[in-house]
Amino acid sequence: MAGVEEVYRAEYGRAVAVLTRVTGDLDIAEDAVQEAFAAAAALWPSHGTPPSPAGWIITTARNRAIDRLRRETRGRDKHAEAAQVAASAHSEEGAVDDDRLRLIFTCCHPALAPAARVALTLRLLGGLTTAEIARAFLVAEPTMAQRIVRAKNKIRDARIPYRLPGDADLPARLGGVLAVVYLIFNEGYAASSGGLIRTGLCAEAIRLGRLLAGLMPDEAEVLGLLALMLLVEARRPARVLPDGTLVPLDEQDRSLWDRDLIAEGRSLLRASPGRYQVQAAINAVHSSPGGTDWARVLALYDLLLRVAPSPVVALNRAVAVAETDGPAAALDLLDGLDLANYHVFHAVRADLLRRLGRDFDAVAAYDAAIALAGNDAERAFLTDRRRTLSR
After folding, report:
1. Cα dihedral angle (224, 227, 231, 237), rounded to 10 degrees?
2. Sequence-ordered list of residues with C-beta below 8 angstroms from that of 281, at least 6 positions apart, any chain
3. Considering only CA atoms, which of 123, 147, 146 is closest in space to residue 133?
4. How far apart are the first and last CA of the chain?
């Protein structure tokens, strides 16, 4: 049974992608693949795992899809569909990489709402159940199920094509795909509510990043996103104490960092000004065993602010300015940022005020950060810092 589970995690997205190509229908493809895995769970423990598990699943799913189309036939059109599926000569072999890329770009089509893109990507490519996705994002399972159904209906009703974008559209569409994977990782690494880290989402985002890097090895931004996630993930063992206490970067035990992940992340860095490559480069500097070179971090944030300007990037740049030019210079930079509803903005401001000895103002800023903080670990950390000032 464990073998089936391993194949499911590794091959579910590939099988759905292939069946979507040969049937042209997401629902039929997914149902057929699920039936194939159910058959594998019943047969493999007693008959043994086949030499090509992925091929077995795809062939079985294709046969199930043919049977369904024949059962539902209402005339020659459905018979023709079934014949077309049966005649597909490369369901097991062929352009599987293209199939998965088509599915990724379909799931992340700009016509779909961002939340729907995330849900579909995790469902169809990651093979996560609706219940697992709902738990990860702390929504009710029926709500998540409706979100997935609506997304599939949108693809069908709007006739969103199951194909790769053209060369002219690829950069913009690829950015949307990478943004979805990054959103999944961010929600796992700093959950919007509940506990601080959801390791399953982090692992799934990295797995999707590896998949994209394997399918598009010449795209610097794809490599940059994977590098960024690996470098951030490498520090996770030191980020939280066994009792759940959050540990800021400058207080972490660097000996606990995963050096293999850091090395892999560094190997993916390219001399590219893309937003993910620059963010990965910043995290590579943070991941140095000898400490952070803040002047280098500031220079990279200057570049990032030109490449992908946003108030959050400006806020992070101000943190680097505090380390190079002092908290007063950094505090001046915060005045023009429209981030009143972002708890990190108030947390940074509170820390700068604390370092300047303006404890009364710092307490007020900590109160604002605590009120907006979503997850328990960050709220506890901020509360402890505020309590220290109060004493």
Report:
1. 130
2. 269, 300
3. 123
4. 57
Q: What is the pLDDT of residues 232-288, one digit of tens each?
A: 999 999 999 988 889 999 999 999 999 999 999 999 999 999 999 999 999 999 999
Any idea what DSSP says for residue 113?
A: -
CA–CA dist 20, 69 (Å, integer): 14
Q: What angle do CA 351, 354, 358 make, to 5 degrees?
A: 135
- Token pair, residue 171, equals 């950069």
Give this prediction's pTM.
0.84
| CA neighbours closer than 13 Å in the CB half-sphere of residue 37 | 23
Expressed in percent and rounded to 5, the helix, strand and coil fractions of the chain are 75, 0, 25
Give the dihedral sign, CA 42/44/47/53.
positive
**What amino acid is encoded at 84 in this protein?**
Q
Q: Is 87 exposed, middle or buried (0-12, 13-18, 19+ CB in 10 A)?
A: exposed
Residue 176 burial (C-beta neighbours within 10 Å; 0-12, 13-18, 19+): middle
Read off the pLDDT of residues 315-331 as tens digits, 9 standing for 90 and up: 999 999 999 999 999 99
Residues, the chain: 391
Helix 220-234 × helix 199-215 angle, to 10°: 150
What is the SS3 assignment for 69?
A: helix
Show the 3-state SS of 248-316. CHHHCCHHHCCHHHHHHHHHCCCCCCCHHHHHHHHHHHHCCCCCCCHHHHHHHHHHHHHHCCCHHHHHH
In angstroms, the CA 230 to CA 360 distance is 39
Give the gyration radius of the chain's Cα atoms: 24
- Please answer whether residues 134 and 141 qualify as being in contact, where contact means their C-beta atoms are separated by less than 8 angstroms: yes
Q: Which domains does the chain have, with CATH numbers?
A: 2-94 (1.10.1740)
CA distance 82 to 67: 8
